[in-house]
Amino acid sequence: MVKGISRQVIVVHSPDPKLFEQAIFILKDEAVGQGITDEVLLKEAQKAIRSPMMDAKVPKLSQWGPVWACGGAMLTGLVWLLTALI
């Protein structure tokens, strides 16, 4: 734990608290000294929560699972067949 350091934060409460109660943003020291208003900080925090990066679709590897399973089964069967014939 760090002692003697004070930081300014923004706390944004979740509109749907099923999973998260709140998000906490720690402000940079430069942002505090530039005279940015509270409304701008709050809008930026809400914008960060809804950013496209959060909505980016992650490639689902689970869709490829059956393909790899079938390929592995076919390869195993082929190796078994070749060893049985030789």
Q: What this model shows, in words?
A:
The chain has 86 residues and is mainly alpha-helical. Helix content is 49%, strand content 12%. The chain contains four helices and two strands, in the order E-E-H-H-H-H. The chain has helices at 29-33, 38-49, 52-55, 65-85; strands at residues 9-13, 22-26. The protein has a two-stranded antiparallel ribbon. A hairpin with an 8-residue loop joins strand 1 and strand 2. The longest helix is centred in the last third of the chain and has 21 residues, at 65-85. The model has no long low-confidence stretch (mean pLDDT 78).
Short description:
By secondary structure, the chain is mainly α. It is built from four helices and two strands.
Describe the protein's topology:
Blueprint lengths: L8 E5 L8 E5 L2 H5 L4 H12 L2 H4 L9 H21 L1
Antiparallel strand pairs: 1-2
Average pLDDT confidence is 78
**SSE arrangement, N to C:** EEHHHH
DSSP helix fraction: 40-55%
Sketch the major β-sheet: 2 strands, antiparallel
From the spread of the alpha carbons, the general shape counts as rod-shaped
Count of DSSP-assigned helices: 4
Low-confidence stretches: none
Q: N- to C-terminal separation?
A: 67 Å
What radius of gyration results from the CA coordinates? 26 Å
Name the beta content range: 5-15%
